Amino acid sequence: MEISPLTTQVQAASLSAEQVARNSALSETEKIGQLSQKFEALLLRQILNQGFKTVIKSSFTDDSVVSGVYQDMVTNQLAESISQSGSFGLAQSLEKELTRQLAPRAEAKK
């Protein structure tokens, strides 16, 4: 009986930015794509956090620690979802520009 070895494939999206940058299994182009998306999600988180600060407080809004944690979770998930959908467009623009800048460096190494 033949048993195939277990191989774990790590999704680059689940890695931190530092882990993506140090991952030797990813090509430079893949690293640029993943890091561009992570940067876009970070920027979106900042924008969304600032937007939620302007919400007027009332008796209907909960101002507890639990609601703050929940709001953080919602903001993080929303930022990740927008970034992964590609609808914001910053990640694609950044990836395109960094890939364009990477091409001459790759040619110089040859």
Query: What's the helical proportion of residues?
Result: 55-70%
- How many structural domains can be distinguished in the coordinates? 1
Tally of DSSP helical segments: 4
Rg computed from alpha carbons, rounded to a whole number of angstroms: 19 Å
- Unreliable spans: none
Query: How many beta strands in the DSSP annotation?
Result: 0
The main β sheet shows up as: none
**What is the terminal-to-terminal distance?**
46 Å
Portion of residues in beta strands equals under 5%
Mean pLDDT: 83
- Large-scale geometry: flat
Q: SSE order, as H and E? A: HHHH
From the helix content, strand content and strand pairing, which structural class follows? mainly alpha
What can you see in these coordinates?
It is a single chain. This protein is mainly α. The protein has one domain (13-55, 63-109). The chain is built from 4 helices and no strands. It has helices spanning 17-22, 28-53, 65-85, 90-109.
How do the helices and strands line up, and which of them pair or pack?
Elements lengths: L16 H6 L5 H26 L11 H21 L4 H20 L1
Short structural summary:
This protein has one domain. The model has no long low-confidence stretch (mean pLDDT 83).
Identify the notable features of this structure and list them briefly.
66% helix, 110 residues, flat
